[in-house]
Amino acid sequence: MSKKTVLRRLSESLGISSLGLPRTRSLSSVISSPKKPQASTVAQSYGTSYTLDRYLTNEGHRLVASYFRLNQTQKHIQKGTFHQITEKELDELIDSYNGITTLAFETLNYQHLSLTLAECKLLAKLLNYNAITNIHTLNLSRNRLSGSSLRVILDALQKNTTVSFLDLSFNMISDNESKWLGKLLKKNNSIKELSLAFNKIGCDGARRISKALKINSTLKRLSLEANRLNTQGGLFVSDMLKVNRTLKYLHLGSNNLQFVGIQGIAEALRVNESLVSLSLDVNNIAISGSKLLADALTINKTLTHLYMPRNNIGDEGLKHLCQALLLNTSLTYLDVEFNNIGIHGNTEGSSVLGKLLENHVVPRAINLSHNPIGSSGCEALFVGFHKNKTLESMVLSYCSIGFEGINAVAEALKSNQCLQNLSLYKNSNIGADGHLVLAKALEQNTNLKRVQLDYNFEDWEAVGNLIQGYLTRNILLQQEKYDVACRILKAARIMLNTSAYRTTTTNNSTPLAISRRSFSIRSNISNSIILSSPFVISFMYLPFEIQEKILVSLDTNQVLTQHQAIIILNWSVRKDTLGKSMEEFLIRTFGAYYPLTNDIRLWPTEANDKDALIFDRF
Fold first, then answer.
1. How many CB atoms neighbour CB 257 within 10 A?
2. Exposed/middle/buried for 456, CB within 10 Å: 0-12, 13-18, 19+?
């Protein structure tokens, strides 16, 4: 028996993962003819006696001691406590793997550790062994990294081929360190996500990073949030966007880009064909900057997410954006919270947005939180919302909405068939009557699945339970619709595409055509009968109208409309639909597909969900 086997049994008894230690003959021979071992001061130093002692010689005790030492080194690396280990111990651990790739260090989360230069050198050495350590995620945020400490890590990453996510946010990175970042981005071909948020990178740093990204073809996500780019830095970034073809997510929030910087970004959006998400929070965009971005959106066809909170665009700026979106069909999400929309009772922005949502396909989600649109603005926003067929999520938290506003929302929800998430959090003037009106509307609405409200009135629990009951019903109903659609498709695929059926249609020269007659007559034939072979053959000779009624009888609770059933049956007999995904099938059947999972929100729906908002953007 090899000593690897002994160590494996030892690790299993102790609940410790095995390390790749070399084999030994002497230990195997000892185990084959065991004898009582001598006491070992090395083993006793660990303070515990194990039942395997009777199998071990002095060499065995040294092996066990080595095992515990290596295991302890590995734990220190996972925790980031490099000050507890030496370079020799790190080398010993790496050698123990014998060239076998391990997933022990796949994710290293080193936040708030204040790493010293000596510790950074050990980390750099670990990164150099990338073929063995296999590190994918490296989080070094909040370590006050700068100077030589940062340089040794970035130099090691130049040759590293496994790290794909690198977080250097909340450090002390300035223009001086940016030259090493530039070299890293020019040479590294594995990093796909890089966060440099909340550092001190200025204009010169933006120049170096942008120059490197003109060459880099692997980075897809970059966050430069809360640095010191200013106007000139924004121009360097815009020049990069005109050339780069791989960057998809860019966060430039809180960089004081101002009008000239925004002008450069807008010009880049006219020619860029890769960027899908752009964050421009707190950049003093104002009305003039919003018009520049709006003009760019009439040309850009790839951007799907645009974040513009805290830029004071007002109603006039929102009007520019809405007018541009009439010519845009790609923008999915628009975030304009904290922009003084509706201030002093102005409803122009809300009215224009309402008309856009009434007649157009974008956006699919909008965040209007912390804008004083009030009840009058809310009424203008929802006047034609019952016609909307695409908006899935709307955030109206902290919008000073009263009873009249919530009444307009409730009336629209009675007919609207698409909205999935609605946030009305922190609108205290809605009152008990407003909550009851909304609950009454949900009795008719069968699509809305999430609502954020404040229940701060008497009998709030009863109203809350009533609303939650309707929302739960909607979730279950949507699940049943999807299940029934897939069940009918499966049965139709089997019974309308058999060899017997093809022979019959060929001999009679009668093409299959799904009729649009009423599906009021429904059969009680069970699934097992429908899918049995004799029935399938007989099924082919039935008139098409009878075939239809048998298939749609699988919808026992009649949750599908006649139009949806027709689409399903037509889909089932077309050869070009074979191999299509379930998502594509459900989108074609229902007009949209809403995943029934915990992450049903396509984006945060609560205005105070800041952590999720930043994470989703990055």
1. 28
2. exposed
CA atoms of 360 and 164, how far apart (whole Å)? 39
Long-range contacts of 31-37 (CB under 8 A, 24+ apart): 31/1, 31/6, 31/55, 32/1, 37/61
DSSP secondary structure of 247-289: --EEE--SS--HHHHHHHHHHHHHH--S--EEE--SS--HHHH
Taken as a whole, the chain contains a residue count of 618
- Phi, psi (deg, nearest 5) at residue 166: -130, 120
DSSP string, 81-112: -GGGS-HHHHHHHHHHTTT----TTSEEE-TT
Q: What is the rounded distance in angstroms from the CA atom of residue 465 to the CA atom of residue 402?
A: 22
**Tens of pLDDT, residues 333-381:** 999 999 999 999 999 999 999 999 998 999 999 999 999 999 999 999 9
CA 234 to each of CA 217, 228, 247, 295, 410: distance values in angstroms, whole numbers, following the listed order: 21, 10, 16, 18, 44
Q: Are strands 277-279 and 305-307 parallel, antiparallel or unpaired?
A: parallel
Per-residue H/E/C for 128-148? HCHHHHCCCEEECCCCCCCHH
Residue pair 197/170 in contact (Cβ under 8 Å)? The answer is: yes
How many CB atoms within 10 Å of residue 150?
Answer: 24
Question: String of b and e for 582-598 (b: at least 16 CB within 10 Å)?
Answer: eeebbebbbeebbeeee
DSSP 423-483: E-TT-GGGHHHHHHHHHHHHTT--S--EEE----STTHHHHHHHHHHHHHHHHHHHHHHHH
- Mapped onto helix, strand or coil, the DSSP state of residue 223 is strand
Mean pLDDT of 494-519: 47
Mean pLDDT (whole number) for 476-499:
86
Number of helices (H) and strands (E) in the chain: give both, helices first: 26, 13
* CA–CA gap between residue 616 and residue 606 (Å, rounded): 13
| Unique residue bearing structure tokens 């020269």 | 509
CA 190-242-258 angle, to 5 degrees, is: 105
Which position has the token pair 């645009």?
A: 306
Whether the Cβ atoms of residue 494 and residue 573 lie closer than 8 Å to each other: no
Helix (H) or strand (E) holding 393: strand 393-395
E strands, 17-92, are none
Residue 463 to residues 208, 399, 467, Cα–Cα distance (Å): 58, 22, 6
| pLDDT at 245 exceeding the cut of 80 | yes
- 137 token code pair: 């995620």
3-class SS at 411? helix
